[in-house]
Amino acid sequence: MGRLSPNQPIKVQERLTPIIGRGDKISFWLDNWAAEVPLRVLFPNLFAIETEKQCKVMDRYTYNQGKAVWFWGSNHTISSNDLAIEWGECLSLIEKVNIQLKDDNWQWKTDAVAENFTVSKLRSELDHNDTLNETRVIKWLHWIPKKVNCFLWRVVLDRLATKEALQLRNIPLTSNSCPFCNIAVESFSKNVIYVSTSFLAYHEFYSFLDSGDYSTVPAIPGYGWIKPSQQFWFQQTSMKLQRKSKAPGLAYFHIPLPEYSSFDSSSYTGVELEPGNPPISSASVNSGFFTTLVGAGDVKAVFVGHDHINDFCGELTGINLCYAGGFGYHAYGKAGWSRRSRVVVASLEKKSNGSWGAVEFIKTYKRLDDGNLTVIDNQVLWTKTPSMKW
């Protein structure tokens, strides 16, 4: 996905060079940490049988007496002589790399010098590089989800509903300031490019999973579910994140869990208007993912779609199970019932030195497309202070 231009673009991947530390942020196969090119290019046969192609460098060694001891960690064994020779060559290469128990880093190469990478350096270079003209052509990538294509298309056309964009459309707002700093105008570049908390929040507590659409098992009719392999990935990722931070987690996927049927109108905020019996269109089997979420302990809220005119949010065993609300006009709704979008607000503590600290609270509300963008159903989903209310 990107803008096509007759000018020479900045090739970010070619300009970035990983500086290996402990290897917890650098990809074993996909980053060029051991040679000028990634290991997947040098050893394609090994990469072809690798079952964890996104694994990090740290996943493939143990540290013993000040030295990294490398091992083959894939589920596929090295069964042929050719593969054994290729693995031997790979070992000879990576054993020359000095693994140190410190943070990984990245260097940004320019024509004159290589220096530590920062977003501000890239931003400064982009500001002085005239690669984007007024003719914008979108290249549609079929190997990423359609929603990601659509989101990036809206980014390119500046069609995200930031306060700056809403004001340009003459929508009245009480304030156009960024909720993080209360100084600058809230815009896409401010919130995503300049605000470091966006990067922190994404990597600390968001989990996005694909529940599919319909069952892929012929003997099981109905809708899809979170598969065992995805649950294993979630458990591993959750454990890694919780070793670094105790930030509360949020999970997003499409098909509601069977546990969404556990509520009645007295135990949730919102409405349940789907006509089915039951009015929750979950999979016909229970994959046990809710139990997995409870066991992990970090996820405080789950957000789903699928049932367009259910918009409720209720708490079950310490986890808020919420619907996103029927938003788009391309799908079914209900006459007289305003389309709506759920907004989730995660607020960080402000430290005495002006920097951002841990997550302080997570709130949610729904905004209606009723001409006034009315806000309804304010809820506190999680807070460090149990007595806090909206």
CATH architecture label of the domain at 195-383: 2-Layer Sandwich
Task: Name the overall outline.
Answer: globular
Parts with pLDDT < 50 across at least 5 consecutive residues: 1-6
CATH level 1 class label of the domain at 195-383: Alpha Beta
Percentage of residues in strands: 15-25%
The CATH homologous superfamily name of the domain at 195-383 equals GpdQ, beta-strand dimerisation domain
> What about the largest sheet?
5 strands, mixed
Which whole number gives the mean pLDDT?
82
Verbal overview:
The protein is α/β, with parallel strands linked by helices and 390 residues long. Among the domains are: 21-94, no CATH class; 195-383, Transcription Regulator spoIIAA (2-Layer Sandwich), CATH 3.30.750. The chain is 25% helix and 19% strand. The chain is built from 11 helices and 13 strands. It has helices spanning 12-15, 39-42, 44-49, 81-94, 119-127, 146-156, 163-168, 188-194, 196-205, 228-244, 289-296, and strands at residues 16-19, 61-64, 67-70, 105-109, 114-116, 206-208, 249-252, 299-304, 313-316, 319-323, 340-350, 356-368, 375-383. The strands form 4 sheets. The chain has a 5-stranded mixed sheet. It has a 3-stranded antiparallel sheet with strand order 1-4-5. A 3-stranded antiparallel sheet has the order 11-12-13, with no helix packed on it. Helix 10 (228-244) packs parallel to helix 11. The protein is globular and about 70 Å long. The chain starts with 11 loop residues before the first helix and ends in a 7-residue tail after the last strand.
